[in-house]
Amino acid sequence: MALAEAINNAIKYAVESARTQPIDVEIICSAQEIQLVVTDRTPGFEWPVEPRLPKQESETGRGVYLIQTVMDHTAYFKEPGGNRLILRKRRDT
Questions:
Q1: Which fold has domain 2-90?
Q2: DSSP H/E element including 69
Q3: Is the dihedral angle over the CA atoms 37, 20, 8, 68 positive or is it negative?
Q4: Burial (Cβ within 10 Å: 0-12, 13-18, ≥19) of residue 35
Q5: C-alpha–C-alpha distance, residues 69 and 56, integer Å
Q6: Measuring CA to CA, how many Å separate 57 from each of 8, 14, 62?
Q7: pLDDT in tens, 10-64
């Protein structure tokens, strides 16, 4: 669910010149955790430190909250030419 939301956001917020650029997804699995890395070509934004739901009447803004709530670790890095979202979830062992 978090991966789908991350990719949807990358598509939705891509600037016109980046709409034909790929969204890269890297999945790394170990016995202890799953790590997802999504690299997009959006202008980027400030990743909130704490997840917060938007106002109830808001039509948008729940994606980052959802991602941060279901994952054990999230980090977002704005970089020249793209941005990286790193998501980690511990696996039951």
A1: Heat Shock Protein 90 (3.30.565)
A2: helix 63-70
A3: positive
A4: middle
A5: 17
A6: 21, 25, 11
A7: 888 878 878 888 999 999 999 999 999 999 988 888 788 887 887 777 766 688 8
Tell me which residue has tokens 């938007």: 54
Give one word for 28, left, alpha or beta, with left for phi > 0 and alpha for psi -120 to 50. Answer: beta
CA-CA-CA-CA dihedral for 4, 10, 16, 19, to nearest 10: -50
| pTM recorded for the entire structure | 0.85
